[in-house]
Amino acid sequence: MFVYDPTIVPAVHDFQEKCKRYSKRESRLAATAGVDGTARSRDGDAHMSVWEEWITENGDLGAFEVVSTSTTANLPRPIRMQPALSAERWFTFFEPSTADQPNTEFRMTADSDTVCRAVFAGGIEEDMRPLVWKYLLSIYPWSSTERERQAIDKEKADEYWILKSKWLNDQELKETPDFIEQTSRIEKDVLRTDRTLPLFATDSGFGGGDEANISEHGLPGSSASLEKMKDILMTFHRYDQGVLGYVQGMSDLLAPIYSVYQDEPTTFWAFTAFMKRMRSHFLRDQSGMQDELSTMAQLVEIANPRLHKHLVQCDADNMFCCYRWLLIWFKREFGFEDVLRLWEVLWTDYLTDRFVLFVALAILQRHADVIIDHLRSPEEVLKYVQDLSDTIDLNDALKGAEMCFYKVRFRVNAVEQIRKSRNLPLFVSSISDDEPAAAAAVKEENEESSSADAEVPLMTFEWEDNQNSGSGEKDPLLKGDETPESDISRTPPLTSSRGSILDSNGKEMSPEDAKLDDGTTLPRISEAVHRIFAESSYNEVNSTV
Known about the structure:
By secondary structure, this protein is mainly α. A three-stranded antiparallel sheet has the order 1-2-3, covered by helices on one side. α11 packs antiparallel against α12 and α17 packs across α20. The protein contains 22 helices and three strands.
């Protein structure tokens, strides 16, 4: 029970009043919930949809506060508050060695999820980072022995020098237009990368000082580290040329890795492993980044419909304000050391391999009130978001991202459970000119998803904010999502074309079948968002600290 005490400062009293309102609302919801779990108003005339109930949870008790109500009481607590992984703890993950039974193989006995959870929860101490990163970047298999790891190091080093020598000693290749163009592009990018760091500061022994070089070439001077980075990127370009090759911006991703290893072969293979997951960001048709931004837009819509509605009104719902964040994983938003800490968390894939989206979501959540109250155009939103650089606390962002993950997962799962209980269609698909073929494709993919994940049906519903559903306004029709699972380079348009609703057999159904008892349409979940949680490595059993 909350009692007013005039001796309590007004801020605390305001907090008490908020808590009292939440307590009343929780009691009301428990007393008025329908048999299907959908909360209703006491008089029965107006109905509160699942989505409206979620919207009312968006209070101002804290940047990432999760109010304990009937719909949020079971959310896990964030684990991003543990000490960094130390050498002492790291070696407990391996077979013990005693005088009677020495561990000659030095093989890891802990499973990879245990190690990744430890990194996710606290990061890695600086002296252990070079070793642990090799596991996170799949250079070392988790089950490898010490002898196997030594062999991998030698083999990878030999392979790198061979790859480098192929272009370094080929004078004819060096005279080709592509090589000349790439050399110039790489040099310009590298000589502009992290030059304020001592590691990348100009060394006058490599072609003179900055002033002379800027005067003559328009670029600062170089150093031994920068020259090695140029060679690594050119070797990568030749190595990966059949797929993508070097693209502007990759130097930003190389610099942190080089700072940890400062060794050409190891840096090259760590960077190559990193680029396997980042390659779609650099596709020339921008489809990979379009996918990131469209998924980001729906996460915002699910987590904070008020913010999403405002971004729509500002013509900023394409989420281009987050483009730089996602393209190079916040490389220019955090200090250099924080970038290392962030990346090693993202490499764990502990909750999802798209956790970077939730980091972005958490930051937007923290600044939502400012964006809503003061920004009115896409240019203003873009400038405000970019000006957050070097002002974001990494641990706050990571804890907020973890809570955003749990919150969005809860909401997505709630919608899926309602659909399952009502035997509603699993897909909403845009129908092509060949409708039978499209229906057959839907049925085939549904059958595959059922065998792979029987508990969570695959859906491609796109979210609709139904907070005004009680006003009598007509609900918008469902829209299709035409992104195939197997083609990561394709992306749904930010505004999908109108589609039909298909059941699990590919049969067209009426939109009325997808409505709740109160007449509102179920919130729509895109396939990309659904898969974040369907493919999540998160284990409820290991959710406690």
